[in-house]
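Retro notes - structure team

What went well: the batch runner handled both jobs without manual restarts.
What didn't: labels got mixed up in the shared folder, which is why I'm recording both outputs here explicitly, each with its sequence directly above its tokens.

Job 1
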Amino acid sequence: MLVFLRPIVNATTPSQAAPLIRVDLTAADFAANWQQCDRVANYLARTVSSDRPDTFLHANLLSTALNELFEIAFVQHRAGGKIICELLRSGPADRVELTIPVDAAHRTYYRKQVAFIHSGDVATLYSTALLGEADPDIAIGLLELAADYGAVITLDETLDDAHVRLVVEMHLGTPAA
């Protein structure tokens, strides 16, 4: 698996979240061996959790969240290109920005998932999905992040026609502001 880790220093994004680290994964290698993706998620989580009050709790929660996001991208991406994962922080909030190569069908998939999460009470939507009463194509992992982690999930489609950016902001191990 080709992985490029780039620590990011002295930079801010328009939302004032400080970039912490970025990993570039080739889509083909990313999809070839799930265990390596799990290791990358664990490494990233441990790396960015080192300064949190409860390092172990934060790393565990972030690793779980990254694994959910990687699992969705593992299944729902077009061949070719890179999957880019950036971790950013703004105070107690951690943000994951996952840039995913897509074709029209994958773009529609991500639109549907994010729209569903915003279509009602997320706890009710999550319960319905867990009971098998929702569309079977609904990504339960995203619902879990929204319901159990209080994640705010958005989709940025402004990159280009070949990519989307799934943005997930969470307060892990701390009360949401």
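Job 2
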Amino acid sequence: MTTLFLPVGQLSRQTILHTARCIADTQLPSGAIPWFDGHLLDPWDHVEAAMGLSIAGFQVQAAKAYRYLARIQEADGGFWPAYADTVPLDRTRKETHHSAYLATGVWHHYLITADRMFLEEMWPHAGAGLDFACERQTPHGEIAWTVNDRGHAYPDALVTGCSSIYKSLECGCQISQELGDERADWIPVRRNLGRAIRNSPHRFDRTWASKARYSMDWFYPVLCGVITGPRASRRLLERWEEFVLPGLGCRCVSDEPWFTVAETCELIMALTAAGHRGKAASLFADLHRARHRDGSFWTGYQSELDIFWPRERPTWTAGAVLLAADALAGLTPAAHLFTSAAPCRALIPEAREVFAADSPG
């Protein structure tokens, strides 16, 4: 059914390889994947690009990207927010969702490659990144956005960042089960984090302007499995016309005519998770307008000015496109990662709780 909505060849092997090659060609000898040639990288987007490499079969390059993160990881499990190759550009803070996302990438790569030696090698680093985030959870359940250079957590949290950590904790639990090194201490952290995102919106955006105008705050709880079932469907449909314009995709923010490829791709995965595969496939078909002849994708399109803006084609955008393609077409064994919860044994009670909370009546 999905292919009926897509232009001929948009999910062809050649097209997938063409896009992934843009990521591989940008990767530095160290394994670092900057946004584009000559630019910086951040750890979260680096993982997003590395997952794109894994999907397209660039397994050596993907593993190199994760080993790069293992080398630059700080002793406390965190990462600085920006690097020029291996050199930190900003030592003022470490963001919790950055540290946690390594576990998502490592599990994603393992699902595709079944490389147990790689999983064992990266497990201490993925675990340390999750511990860094978990240690910043408040008694109310949310996890602080960032930690300053003195180790003090900022007293506020992001819905999008916390949703990403929630997914990363699922991946960490999957790794721990696979390796027989179960981390029961992560279970209550994830459960309380999910409850905070679902039921305590007042715990987020307390010290800065609300992020509700950002589309990611709208769909990330669905993308990351915090909200599921009928409640997920309702959440996506409630603000659909506010964020989505057929033919252009998903806005980055609700009050700007800027339609971004990465947000559109992540929304595609959230829609697939909520059972709206037709809408997801239609949005994917619209992405071809933002594709450059070299296989990369523009960051976004400003509809009032009729221009692609900014004039850049980031590796993480290409990674997001490949993740969406995999979610729709089932290209790899990791295709389900963002579209259906597959919790390990220890997470089954929480999965039942989430299902009950998100079911009608």
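One thing worth noting from job 2: The first helix runs from residue 13 to 26.
We'll revisit the folder naming next retro.
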